[in-house]
TrEMBL record:
Domain spans labelled FAD-binding: 8-368
Family the entry assigns: Belongs to the paxM FAD-dependent monooxygenase family.
UniProt name for this protein: Podospora anserina S mat+ genomic DNA chromosome 2, supercontig 2
SUPFAM superfamilies, per database record: FAD/NAD(P)-binding domain
Alphabetical UniProt keywords: FAD, Flavoprotein, Oxidoreductase
GO MF terms, alphabetically ordered: FAD binding; monooxygenase activity
Obligatory cofactor(s): FAD
Length: 441
């Protein structure tokens, strides 16, 4: 491989962000290889994911809108309750009014299955499973990536989409002699019990699709999203042992104990968590890391998604923020690929720096918002309790923050420059970028 051969991107990790990048690079005509550690890119993990307006714009551009709409349920309504089920705040999320589209919820498995199955066969053939990254070597022309099974792959650059425990990040930090703080950049203060259940298995006429029920209380809080066919929950509480930077692996016994601890807590005005847990399809317990790396890249190695920026799920933006990472990179990589220029280490380094600069403002705001929200909904301190229980319901600060702070920032986020948005919807805040604009005769 010489420096003038076409760009080839090696993506580590075929999770939601790696697969979204695969869709983008396929459309951009940029060659890639995905190396995924697991035996499949479509594992069942039990979790749901909220999809926001910016991700729907991408799906529209990629021609995936009908598929994504078919597997998701818009959730425009939110209700906040006490532990005993008393509702003290009900409102409509700001997203539809501001950006034309409500947040929609889908099953993570349906998301990755759709992202994978809609790739052309030629792109599917570029995804290799049972390939666990073990090393990256920089060469004068590019990179050589080695997997635990001894196989190796050459490319122009590497993108680590390998999640919160990113091996790409570890290798990058070791090669660049990064400070110790960058090796374990995330701290965990909260844990989350999550899972899904068949919607019709639940008693209670209030369980109609389209609602997010949230219990906010001292030391524990829940989110309960009701879709057409199934519902998803996540229960948040502080780590029993206090904050840590270490990895925690949970057992089935831990899951049972957590569920037992919160079984009397209401997750809707009529249902307790105990009612829901009896009907659960699959549940998991995870630590909820928070934090962001200082440097998202070094030379020919870059990071996207949870590998570089990790938030708790309260604001439903982990995946959506990662999608914005790969949109920005997609725009830059397409230009580089088509430039016909020699792809030097310096050029790749500059591209990654441009990517980091573009993503800085919104990612930092998202991190701050998620950090504030989880502490508010678990009433961490009297002021947070006061804000959540008494001030917010009267003044509507949630909606105000959404529409006046996050909304204008969200509207500034990029779309793919080379594709038309066929079903673009505007809300009260106009989008700054429109993608390819086709003028109709
Ligand atoms: C309970 C829960 C609920 C959530 N809800 C939402 C939500 O509503 N909205 C939202 O936007 N986000 C949500 N998130 C966050 C969202 O799931 C993540 O932000 C998103 O999955 C990150 O995708 P990723 O591809 O970066 O990382 P991951 O999903 O972690 O995928 C990483 C991939 O890399 C692979 N990999 C790891 N190491 C290696 C290696 N050494 N070699 C090769 N491959 C490797 C892994 O097997 C995996 O397939 C939620 C998260 C949780 C836990």
């Amino acid at each position: 491989m010489t420096a003038t051969t076409p760009l080839k991107v090696i993506i580590i990790g075929g999770g939601p962000i790696g697969l979204t990048l695969a869709q983008i690079l396929t459309s951009a005509g940029v060659d890639f290889t995905i190396l995924e550690r697991r035996s499949t890119v479509t594992p069942e993990e039990g979790a749901g994911i909220a999809i926001g307006p910016t991700s729907f714009r991408l799906y529209d551009q990629l021609g995936l809108l009908p598929q994504m709409e078919a597997i998701s349920t818009p959730i425009p309504h939110k209700h906040v309750l006490q532990r005993d089920g008393k509702v003290y705040n009900s409102y409509e999320f700001h997203l539809r009014a501001c950006h034309g589209r409500a947040m929609a919820f889908l099953h993570r498995l349906d998301l990755v299955t759709t992202l994978f199955s809609t790739l052309p066969d030629s792109a599917k053939a570029k995804i290799h499973v049972n390939k666990s990254l073990s090393d990256i070597t920089l060469t004068p022309e590019g990179v050589t990536v080695t997997c635990a099974d001894g196989t190796s792959y050459n490319g122009t650059l590497v993108i680590g989409a390998d999640g919160v425990h990113s091996k790409t990040r570890k290798i990058m930090n070791s090669l660049s002699n990064a400070p110790e703080s960058e090796t374990l950049p995330f701290e965990t203060t909260f844990q989350g019990l999550f899972g899904n259940f068949p919607r019709l298995s639940l008693p209670g006429s209030e369980i109609e699709p389209g609602h997010d029920w949230e219990c906010h209380s001292g030391g524990v809080s829940s989110q309960f999203f009701v879709g057409r066919d199934r519902g998803w929950f996540i229960i948040y509480r502080p780590l029993p042992g206090g904050p840590t930077r270490e990895r925690i692996d949970y057992t089935d016994e831990d899951i049972k104990q957590f569920a037992e601890d919160v079984k009397d807590m209401h997750v809707t005005n009529k249902l307790t968590f105990g009612d829901v847990f009896k009907n659960v399809n699959k549940a998991g317990l995870t630590q909820l890391q928070e934090g962001a790396v200082k440097n998202r890249s070094w030379k020919r190695i870059g990071l996207v998604g949870d590998a570089c920026d990790k938030i708790t799920p309260n604001v439903g933006l982990g995946y959506n923020n990662g999608v914005l990472d790969v949109i920005v990179l997609g725009n830059l990589l397409k230009k580089l690929n088509e430039s016909g220029e020699e792809i030097t280490e310096e050029k790749v380094g500059k591209l990654f720096k441009e990517y980091q600069a573009e993503r800085k403002e919104f990612s930092e705001k998202v991190d701050d918002a998620a950090r504030g929200v989880i502490r508010t909904v678990t009433h961490t301190g009297f002021m947070k309790y006061l804000l959540d229980r008494w001030i917010n319901p009267v003044l509507g600060l949630d909606k105000l923050y959404g529409s006046k702070v996050m909304g204008p920032l969200m509207a500034k986020q990029q779309v793919l420059e080379w594709l038309e948005e066929k079903n673009g919807i505007d809300g009260s805040i106009p989008w700054a970028h429109k993608g390819l604009v086709v003028t109709k005769a």
